[in-house]
Task: inverse folding
């Protein structure tokens, strides 16, 4: 025990003059303490060090004082505990910094766009006009010249008619892209990429988890916009084939909605429009604007809200993967989900 601890336990002996022989009666405890203090042998280096494995007791010199825990710098367990506690703020700051860097990189991602805004507007206007002109005029005119019309066909004939119309519209749209962007070839890297490599399927799986929210927005949109009295174009023939339970017609319609439509629409809206907009605005705004254009191109007020949200999801998947195959697969899965829902 150290001298400071001994001074706290017992008061120092009273100082008596040397010339006086008179002694005062003292308690035996004080006598033993004073004698021990007076005749204590000098400490050596070996005696000053406590025996190995012996730890000094914690003594409080104050009344009702709380003992302060003693720690040793050589205590591996305690030091490890303090190191662990001190690393937690650092690890949390590291995670936060990494997340902020990823968000910043996502917001600042851009494609190298060799064309200007006039080319973007030209392609989109020609694409929409071509789809309308081919589907509403050219194909019906050719069918009339062949001696039949869509209304007089059977369920299988109408399904085949829709498939051929959709293929013609898609090829016409690709021809417009090829013509308008021909003077900019070869295109910079990252344009119209298709690849089976990478982990894009994980982004597709995350996008599929949002399908219930898209369906919920669809119900809200239908309640906000009243149903039109006239028949909806492009839906009546599909519903008639489903009611008739014609398997061949349903397969043909399934090819239209799950194969053809995703390919043509993703090439235009995610493959061309979204990257082109990054020349003038950040990536999140490019995703939102391209999603709004995708929804408006369907010309259906009852599907604007879910289509905008779906376009944002598909745009995010494409922007993360830089792979058109990812957004096409997600688009195809959503159309298949809607088609199966109609078959109930």
Result:
């Amino acid at each position: 025990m150290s001298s400071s601890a001994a001074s706290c336990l017992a008061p120092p002996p009273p100082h008596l003059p040397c010339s006086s022989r008179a002694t005062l009666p003292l308690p035996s405890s004080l006598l033993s303490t004073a004698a021990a203090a007076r005749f204590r042998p000098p400490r050596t280096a070996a005696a000053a060090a406590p025996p190995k494995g012996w730890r000094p007791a914690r003594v409080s010199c104050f009344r009702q004082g709380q003992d302060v825990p003693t720690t040793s710098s050589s205590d591996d367990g305690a030091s490890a505990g303090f190191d662990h506690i001190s690393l937690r703020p650092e690890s949390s700051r590291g995670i936060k910094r990494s997340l902020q860097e990823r968000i910043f990189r996502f917001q600042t991602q851009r494609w190298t766009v060799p064309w200007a805004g006039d080319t973007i507007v030209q392609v989109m206007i020609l694409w929409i006009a071509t789809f309308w002109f081919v589907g509403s005029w050219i194909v019906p005119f050719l069918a009339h010249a062949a001696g039949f019309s869509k209304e007089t066909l059977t369920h299988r004939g109408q399904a085949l008619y829709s498939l051929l119309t959709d293929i013609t519209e898609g090829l016409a749209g690709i021809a417009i892209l090829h013509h308008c962007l021909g003077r900019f070839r070869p295109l910079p890297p990252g344009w119209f990429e298709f690849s089976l490599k990478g982990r894009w399927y994980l982004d597709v799986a995350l996008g599929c988890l949002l399908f219930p929210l898209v369906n919920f927005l669809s119900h809200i949109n239908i309640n906000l916009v009243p149903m039109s009295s006239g028949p909806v174009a492009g839906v009546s023939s599909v519903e008639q084939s489903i009611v008739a339970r014609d398997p061949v017609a349903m397969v043909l319609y399934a090819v239209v909605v799950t194969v053809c439509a995703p390919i043509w629409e993703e090439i235009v809206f995610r493959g061309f429009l979204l990257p082109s907009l990054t020349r003038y605005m950040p990536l999140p705004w490019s995703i939102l604007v391209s999603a709004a254009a995708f929804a408006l191109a369907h010309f259906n007020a009852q599907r604007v809200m879910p289509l905008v949200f779906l376009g944002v999801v598909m745009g995010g998947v494409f922007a993360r993967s830089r792979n058109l195959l990812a957004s096409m697969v997600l688009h195809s899965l959503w159309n298949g989900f809607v088609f199966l829902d109609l078959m109930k």
